[in-house]
């Protein structure tokens, strides 16, 4: 198994988090109840992915599995405990990449944990708790009969990614010679790759590792580098209503507890490393969560 993740860049995360929080004001909730009100009321609607093994997956029996599912569950239960409330009932809602900001803004979900990278344009529409994980953009290719080993090999190739995702945008910016096909979900990209309709799929290494593990022998993950550094840094956050600083603070307190009591390591072991077999660094330095 390739080592596909790198040390959490805590300093850049601290800087990023600070940037995300600049300008935060009151706790507005134009539509729907915010996360804290929903937890107190005992019913919370959370968004995640439904088709990403090891991260957010709706199983055949309707149950939810994956690291994002476990982290979101931990966070809402931890917030409930801190306030003396019962653990709420969770209703899961599928939140595809391109719909995340809208679903938060419309109040259809109270919070999203869905391989959701924090970036400045999204932070204009929503606020983020975290980050809770760092990964990088890579490629998934068929194991047999191809010669794609890095960015330079993508020129003129058909590459699949998902509408509204950061990897799709970064490929468009960096590699104008690539024929990018954008689908709604990564699982439909995986089928296109399997059928030979596209040459590669690009997104976060965490996600790609889950698909490679799901179809042993069919696919392999190619790490992407530029000038010896990872091609991108994807810092996963928990998206909530814009400027709801009270909720962001409560999420960050819960995330800190999750690292300190060993739950994060357990979730990574059970879902990624010991689950789908994807390696993921576990940060020792928690200063990036200090506000
Ligand atoms: N983390 C990236 C993003 O938020 C890619 C994964 C996804 O689309 O969920 O856009």
Question: What is the chain-wise order of helices and strands?
Answer: HHEEEEHEHEEEEHEHEHEEEEHH
Strand order of the largest sheet: 10-9-11-8-12
The mean pLDDT is: 87
Number of strands: 15
Q: What percent of residues adopt helix (DSSP H or I)?
A: 25-40%
- Put simply, the count of helices is 9
Which cofactors or ions or other ligands sit in this model?
Answer: glutamic acid
Runs with pLDDT <50, length 5+? 1-31
- Helix/sheet category: alpha/beta
How much of the sequence lies in strands comes to: 15-25%
Overall body shape: globular
Radius of gyration: 18 Å
Largest sheet: 5 strands, mixed
Beginning-to-end CA distance, first to last residue: 36 Å
3D architecture notes:
This protein is an alpha/beta fold and 291 residues long. The protein is built from nine helices and 15 strands. The chain has helices spanning 10-21, 35-41, 67-83, 100-105, 166-174, 186-194, 205-214, 245-260, 263-276, and strands at residues 43-48, 51-52, 56-58, 64-65, 89-94, 111-112, 126-135, 137-142, 158-162, 179-183, 200-204, 219-223, 225-226, 229-230, 234-241. The strands form five sheets. The chain has a five-stranded mixed sheet, with helices on both faces. Strands 5-1-6 form a three-stranded parallel sheet. Strand 9, helix 5 (166-174) and strand 10 (179-183) form a beta-alpha-beta unit. Helix 2 (35-41) crosses helix 3 (67-83) and helix 3 (67-83) packs across helix 8. The longest helix has 17 residues, at 67-83. It is globular and about 60 Å long. Residues 1-31 have low confidence and may be disordered. Residues 97, 114-117, 162, 165-167, 203-204, 234 line the site of glutamic acid.
